């Protein structure tokens, strides 16, 4: 039964992503909102719903390995496996402001998380813990990110007031909204089915909690980002694809871990420091690749990023 529900979940994810991207793209044009902003916010937050539900639930029940492993694993998957596959399918054009603002914000969140988790080194504590105070700090950083997004959206809308913008009829807007919400529902429910059943299968095979969090759960909760970004790339909506990846990483660190640790302090397992450092290094690699080839992440760079993920996956399987 677990395998059957897993397949149903994947089907829902694929169809949900198609509707979600199509609806999001049309709504962005109708309301004069840049696609990158749609990708960084609505699409990113929508596709990160599985990570949020899994990590918050794991925090409440005391499963720290899954709670933080899911977020770190999902972020690594976003900027290696997903970004690599998307770049291989269709080279990603990166806007200048994405290089100087959005990607650095994702890097800031990753570095801030590392610093907040260096309790043993910096404070002489017995363990590295993401405390309630740390959670509040992450949520404050998330508030700054939201303020930036709102400011950019307002400026963009004002700049487009005198430009000819594609208009949608009232009926088309309703259809776009329907596609958006149906797609979001498919992503959320499909993600839930995949995570729950994949997790049950993995634990029955004897995998450790941390390994389950970094692999099965992380991959499962990242499927909405994966399918949505691939569909967006195929539809030539590269800004939505990239915005989804970067926005999801920011959302996962600042909001998901912020809420999770505010509910209950999260203790970091020793091995996860390596994964956290890799997440920072990968974000730096993406930033560097974004500045090459006329601000495009090409297929060769996508292959390099994908190889890094395959090597990492092999490492954590043997490590655990």
The whole-number mean of residue pLDDT values reads 81
Identify low-pLDDT runs.
none
Strand content: under 5%
* Euclidean distance between termini CA atoms: 28 Å
How would you classify the helix and strand content by structural class? mainly alpha
Strand order of the largest sheet: 1-4
How would you spell out the order of helices and strands? HHHHEHHEHHHHEHEH
Largest sheet: 2 strands, antiparallel
Outline: globular
Q: What does this protein structure show overall?
A:
There is one protein chain. With 320 residues, this protein is mainly alpha-helical. It is 82% helix and 2% strand. It contains twelve helices and four strands; from the N terminus they run ααααβααβααααβαβα. The longest helix has 35 residues, at 170-204. The protein is globular. The mean pLDDT is 81.
Relevant terms:
single chain; 320 residues; mainly alpha; two-stranded antiparallel sheet; 12 helices; 4 strands; 82% helix; 2% strand
